[in-house]
Amino acid sequence: MAALSGRDLLSLADLSSQEVQELLQMATQLKSQQLRLRCNKVLGLLFSKASTRTRVSFTVAMYQLGGQVIDLNPNVTQVSRGEPVQDTARVLDRYLDILAIRTFAQQELEIFADYAKIPVINALTDLEHPCQVLADLLTVQETFGTCAGLTLTYVGDGNNVANSLMLGCALVGMNVRVATPKGFEPSTTIVEKAQAITNNKTQVILTHDAEAATKGANVLYTDVWASMGQEAEADDRMPIFQPYQINEHLLSLADSEAIVLHCLPAHRGEEITDDVIEGSHSRVWDQAENRMHVQKALLASILGAE
């Protein structure tokens, strides 16, 4: 993976189809311990949003590679006192080997990348969640042996996960259907990027009909109806999103061997029912574990490892 050496990952669109496939292959080998890598580097985590899976998976991945991690909580750094992003970026560049950022605005991430010479990884913004989707694709590949030719249906809010799923599916040759209420569609710019990647070889479909989108799907995916920063809208969104709940009825419309994914945390009884997330079709816990394996592959590829 020399092609990724020293590069930023701000969006899944930064990767080619071949690079995604090679990352998934490396993650598979690391997970099975067929491949063992060492990387004595320092990763900084600058997270302005709460995190369980992203924080822990990046930390464990870096430790298992033999590196170190510094948790740069904004509340105990000068970021919380208004230090300009570009100033923080230039200072951290002098200390760290790589930086993973979890924040609200994609523009803030891009400013860091512009001012820091070290690689910057998008650990989640309001626009995209690329590391999550790499783990999703690994989970699909583990289940079906390939991603190519399958159909993934995402139901719910057209948020950062939906955006990255469209790009990720396009890169690995999967059809993707995104079903949202009116007014909650994914980014038009991201839709156009995904369609350009597919080059008409696979489908990128937007709809407001959750049942039609689910028919025959191989993968059903959802996320919370109100993302971080939108908590005040949660009660108003509830009745609007109710037809987009993944429940036994919606699951029955998918392929009989379909799997169910959720990036977590889940609000059981809202976007997904308890019986579905705990049922035989769920691969949610494998999906969560795979965050660590794909991020280990990503860190090793960007930093170089022995």
Automatic annotation (TrEMBL):
The protein, known as: Ornithine carbamoyltransferase
Catalytic activity: carbamoyl phosphate + L-ornithine = L-citrulline + phosphate + H(+)
Keyword Lipoprotein: no
InterPro entries membership: Asp/Orn_carbamoyltranf_P-bd, Asp/Orn_carbamoylTrfase, Asp/Orn_carbamoylTrfase_sf, Asp_carbamoyltransf_Asp/Orn-bd, Orn/put_carbamltrans, OTCase_ArgI
Location(s) in or outside the cell: Cytoplasm
Family per similarity comment: Belongs to the aspartate/ornithine carbamoyltransferase superfamily. OTCase family.
Organism annotation: Chlorogloeopsis fritschii PCC 6912
Annotated L-ornithine binding sites: 160, 223, 227-228
GO MF entry, a single one: amino acid binding
Domain annotation Aspartate/ornithine carbamoyltransferase carbamoyl-P binding: ranges: 7-142
Record lineage: Bacteria, Bacillati, Cyanobacteriota, Cyanophyceae, Nostocales
